[in-house]
Amino acid sequence: MAFKIKILFITFFYFLLNTKHSDSKPVINPLRDKLRIVGLYLAAHKYFEVDRRTGSEMTWKYDERVYHKYFPLPRLKRLHPEVRTACDQGVLTCIDVIADNAVKSYSLKYLTLKYMNETNPSKPFATPLELFQYRASAAYFLCWFTMQRSEYLMNYMSGSNCLQDLEKVKEKEVADKDVVDFRHDSIQNPFLCAEIQFCPNYCYGRRSGGSVPSQLALIKDSGNPCKHLKDPTCTILPNENTDFDGLQRNMFNISCSCQRSGFIWSSRFELCVDVDECKLKTVTCTNGQVCQNLPGSYKCVCRKGYRFDAESNQCVELVPIPSHSLSRTGRVKAIQQKTALMAMFEYVIGLRNNTEP
Questions:
Q1: Is the pTM of this model over 0.90?
Q2: Which residue in 162, 172, 261, 347 could disulfide with 196, CB within 3.0 to 4.6 Å?
Q3: What's the number of CA atoms in the CB half-sphere (13 Å) around residue 130?
Q4: What are phi and psi for residue 275, nearest 5 degrees?
Q5: Angle 104-110-115 (CA atoms, 0-180°, nearest 5)?
Q6: Residue pair 177/210 in contact by the 8 Å Cβ criterion
Q7: Which helix (H) or strand (E) holds 244?
Q8: Which of 25, 27, 33 is nearest to 8 (CA)?
Q9: What is the largest CA-CA distance in the chain?
Q10: Backbone angles phi, psi at 288, to 5 degrees
């Protein structure tokens, strides 16, 4: 019974959020409504929060807002226990628990008359540090679920702007910063709003405070790591970002379209690097040959000490030159040089009448 009441309250809460932006009656979808609340709650953290582990009320106001670019540095030493317990049980429990706290938050109080007189910015938590720990932990998990492509996170904004109502969160008043993003969920990327609200921006908006106001701004984005390529399209790689520890450490993998064949984008070096077909074992060499990597390609060659014989179509051993002939010649020359030097020395000190050996 209590659970049903909670669902109805959250649904009504988002109804208030949505009525000013649509002339039509919103479709009641409890999970979708909870996700919109959670998305707004965590987007407020992403775009307007600062690191509460250092500084004070006096300095936080002037700190740069950087969590649109990366997760907190250094990463949290300890995840918030409530978030961890809930999210370890799965995405649905995770969303339910975070939504429950988001509804009670000071951040979204403009939607609930019940909390309009609340003056504690950390509500429902006691301190700014705990609120910071809670939302950073929640962002870790929901970004991780997004990278795993959980079906529950698909198209929950229903075509609405991904940052709808962000300008009304309480944190914006302190940050004094505007964030605009023209994008929305689509058939091409039904997880786009989840990526924008829960994960750092690793492609666009990194140098504009998180803002991506238009398609043209996206194409010309100076913070786009692919901007110098012929095709500047930057794409997050969900299948290569499913390591939870890696996400906490900001080890995200993206993809850019490399022009040269045989090259692939490296997120580590932020440039196109050669694909080592030999190391990846994507090729097979026959007739006794081995793989040799080349820039953008490879070739099959014989091992050192072998040559390819066209008649037998195999690598055959090179016929070695007898080692004694080379070594003997070397020794003879060395002896001759030594004898000539000794003759010169004896001549200089008067032990010889000439320099002949």
A1: no
A2: 162
A3: 12
A4: -85, 120
A5: 45
A6: no
A7: helix 244-248
A8: 33
A9: 123
A10: 80, 10
